[in-house]
Hints:
The protein is mainly alpha-helical.
Amino acid sequence: MPLNHPHSKTDLFLSFTWLALQGFGGVLAVVQRELVEKKRWMTREQFIEDWAVAQIMPGPNVVNLSMMIGGRYFGLPGAFAALLGMLAAPLVIVLLLAVLYGSVADSPTAQNALRGMGAVAAGLITATGIKLIGALDKNAMGKSVCIALAALTFVAIALLRWPLLWVLLAVGGGACVWAYRVLSDVDADRKKAGEA
């Protein structure tokens, strides 16, 4: 199935505004569904690669991803259109909610509602992660290595409580070195096959 692309900067702005308005709590699931399944602006594999880059950049992951996509299709103006789409409407909503929440913050009902939303967000993130495992079949490092790296990351953060920076440097750095070696071997094999 061929990939689509945004038709204009206005399309980028409206698409990311709609995406942002759906992203209450578990934005990863919404982003993956909208960009990969509905709009087909990228494949699952491209989404995983771009999401990984967006995660290691400073700032909110989905904002980074939106700017990467906007910049890919329309340069700097596209990046700004996507950024504005991601931030304008949510900013207004968050300001209104902050005013409303300030008046009910001590209410047990409001606190329990927020706990429930947190559980739903965790479920959305887990479901999206499971849905994207199939894309690891095409990863150069192999599915088992990718799953092992994910498990190692989970252990480092959730159980050992390492700071994110150290996990990125240790596990992420090791993954980059491993991927480089694997891809270098693949390139060397291709060159040998071409010479034969």
